[in-house]
Amino acid sequence: MNVYAQDDFRIELATDKPYHYLDQTIYVYGNLTLNNNTVNDALVGIEVVNPKGTSIIIRTTATGDISGKNWLIEILNVTPCDMYGNPRNTFKVGELCFFNVTVKNNDIEIRNVFISVNIYDSTNTPIGLTGFQAQIYANTTGQVILSLPLPKTAVNGKGKAYANVYSLRPKEGGKPYGPEGSAEFNITGSTVVGTTPPPPQTPNGNFHIFFHLSPYHEAGTHRAFASSMYNGYTAVNYTDFLVKVPGDTNGDFKVDLIDLSTLGFAWWSTPNSPNWNPSCDFNGDKRIDGSDLNMLGRYWGYPRI
Ligand SMILES: [Ca+2]
Ligand SMILES: [Ca+2]
């Protein structure tokens, strides 16, 4: 019997902490390897799905220097615009915003593609995602105008749109065809004041994305998918991560009297106290005090905020 060694192209995926609270920054990072050697010139597609099954993030990142590489299909341009495609830079919350995405198929055959636009506000919070299934003829350039509502929970200021092209959605095993395109636009009309939490320390791994989930996002178990295609090899993987609500001590994703009384029992404690309860330490400073009570107050009544 002949035994052939199989190449092992692998994607490993993790988050920087076992759980996060809403309004924190989350790192999704990983390693791409071929036969245990790090691959430093590949693209990785990442899709994050919230507890309701809705995708909130689709991004493509690189594992290193990808300059000078040729791509089968590439995003040539992404421009914020009105519904007719005329360039427009400013959108009000509550209305639709539009993005004109130009995609080029460098291949010698027709390709089915999935084109996505993922928008963020100035706090690096994902605020919208849309996608479009299309066919692009060999060696041609195509344009598509994608629209998505700008939510009232977006923060005023500079927004960013990221456009990508895949064989299928990353969560369906689709691979990125080319590097990400991006554009800036302005968000106005919001009454929401947002914070930009400091990014955590850069974790290990040869690729990563990071994002902020605002107080208006769903709490619960999220799933991040990653996919890559490299010299004919393909790899997919996923990891789950938990997003908790500050103020929720018992993990029912509600903030109510039960949580307030639990916090009361743990009041003024540190890890050496008999009444210490780490699930009340929402800011992670190893003491249960007014800062934690303030956070509970801020989310009081969740999920109704
Ligand atoms: Ca609770
Ligand atoms: Ca604390």
Pattern of helices and strands: EEEEEEEEEEEEEEEEEHH
Domain module tally: 2
Give the helix proportion (percent range).
under 10%
User: Largest beta sheet: what is the strand line-up?
Assistant: 2-17-16-5-6
Name every ligand kind in the structure. calcium ion
Distance between the termini: 65 Å
CATH level 4 superfamily of the largest domain: Macroglobulin (MG2) domain
Radius of gyration: 22 Å
Give the rounded overall mean pLDDT: 94
SSE order and pairing:
Layout: E1 9-15, E2 19-21, E3 25-34, E4 37-38, E5 43-49, E6 55-62, E7 73-81, E8 90-92, E9 96-105, E10 111-120, E11 126-136, E12 141-149, E13 157-166, E14 181-188, E15 207-212, E16 220-230, E17 233-244, H1 257-265, H2 290-298
Parallel strand pairs: 2-17, 8-14
Antiparallel strand pairs: 1-3, 3-4, 3-15, 5-6, 5-16, 7-9, 9-12, 10-11, 10-13, 13-14, 16-17
Gist of the model:
It contains 2 helices and 17 strands. The protein has helices at 257-265, 290-298, and strands spanning 9-15, 19-21, 25-34, 37-38, 43-49, 55-62, 73-81, 90-92, 96-105, 111-120, 126-136, 141-149, 157-166, 181-188, 207-212, 220-230, 233-244. The strands form 4 sheets. The chain has a 5-stranded mixed beta sheet with strand order 2-17-16-5-6, with no helix packed on it. It has a 5-stranded mixed beta sheet with strand order 8-14-13-10-11, with no helix packed on it. Strands 1, 3, 4 and 15 form a 4-stranded antiparallel beta sheet that branches.
